[in-house]
Amino acid sequence: MELAIVKSTFKYLSQIILLSCASFAVLANVNLVKDSGFVRAMPPSVPSTAAYFTLANTSDELYLSKVSTPVAKEVQLHTLVEENNIIKMRQLQQIKVPQNGVLRLHQGGDHLMLIGLIKPLDLNQKVPFTLTFSNGQQLDIILPVQKAKASNQHHHHH
Ligand SMILES: [Cu+2]
């Protein structure tokens, strides 16, 4: 009888430990998918560029709401829309990161727009970004500068 009580108490305690581990994990529920991103290399005369990457979310739905980097005056969240057969960029206030899913920023869709580059970026330069989410979480990531992928290219209209 006593053994049964001890057993159930132990079970209860281990559940508490599991629960507290789970709630701790919520603090870092969004992460960069390794090697998924890059900043698009542009000719030195172009003062803006785009960045792409994939984020994986292991928890509830949230929104990417703000991005900053020391290499540009401003980072905007952009999407592409088609109007009269012309693909245009539109600024978004935030981009959804689905529950237990991924947000994929890519050349044919949503992307980061770096506006007002402080100086031209070098090929393979590592560019740091701080991402801020709707729940207050912040994530620091580093993306390399690379030439645009040949497929799925889109045109920028500024
Ligand atoms: Cu854009």
Would you kindly provide a written description of the structure presented here, covering whatever features stand out?
The chain has one helix and twelve strands. With 158 residues, the chain is an alpha+beta fold. The protein folds into two domains: 1-30; 31-152, PCu(A)C copper chaperone (Immunoglobulin-like). The strands form two sheets. It has a nine-stranded mixed β-sheet, with no helix packed on it. A three-stranded antiparallel β-sheet has the order 1-4-9, with no helix packed on it. It starts with a helix and ends in a 12-residue tail after the last strand. 19% of the residues are buried. The model has no long low-confidence stretch (mean pLDDT 87). The structure holds copper (II) ion (CU). Residues 50, 78, 89, 111, 113, 156 line the site of copper (II) ion. Copper (II) ion (CU) binds at residues 50, 78, 89, 111, 113, 156.
